[in-house]
Amino acid sequence: MKCSFCGRTIPQGTGKIYVKKDGKLLYFCSSKCEKNMLKLKRKPQKYKWTASYKRVSK
User: Fold this and answer.
1) Residue 31 placed within a domain
2) CATH code for the domain of 20
3) Which of 3, 6, 14, 56 lies 20 to 30 angstroms, CA to CA, from 43?
């Protein structure tokens, strides 16, 4: 399973699952990723430490 924000793989038995009202599942490896996506409403493509930034910048 991969984190919905940073793209890292989440070891089994760790992380959080967030269920949106429309039924979509979001997986988070840390509270840092969860806060950035849900509370601060940030886009992962703008942050160097995420895998999606590395894909966009190539």
Assistant:
1) yes
2) 2.30.170
3) 14
